[in-house]
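User: Fold this; tokens only.

Assistant: Input:
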Amino acid sequence: MKPQNKKRFRAAVLLLILLFVLSACSRGQSESSPPESSPPVSTEQEETAQPETEQPETPDVAANEAVLYIGTRDGGFTEYPMTYEGTLTPEILIAGIADLTGWDMTLAENVTTGKGGMSVCFADSSALFNGPPDPQNEEFFMFDAEQLAQTILDSTQKTLQMGFTGEGGDPDALDIYYYMEGEKPLELPDIGREWPLDQPYAW
């Protein structure tokens, strides 16, 4: 083989080897390339709305019951039930009489309670000193100042005695005293009646 042909042959062989190497490298890179990662899948879930918790209904507070006594000791009393909330007090009973009859039963001060009984002071503006309302409640119609005064005083006395005497006790043993503002004895000059401070009420 001529030297010139040998050179061409070698060049061809080198070219083939080079092509083979390049082809192998290209294939190796293709095989070693990591696969494209798929997009991440969202794992968040929509929050489920929590149902509102219903508040338990507050039971109605049971009302207590008391009895009002309207009338006089001479003519007798009629009983009228009334309801109230909380602890029973003399003021609640006296206000109950006022609401029932329409009479002004305003107190000058709270009823005082002691070993000797209960002391009640009606205000100067009350019906005891100023007469019944106009017009009057037909069921509790009073014909004159004396009838009104006796009915107010007797009804208050009887209602307090019955309301604050323990079971099995004697209501009449609970003395009721009346007095005027300024700690003065109760006086009703228009009908000629008065009661000393140290003596329980009796008509």
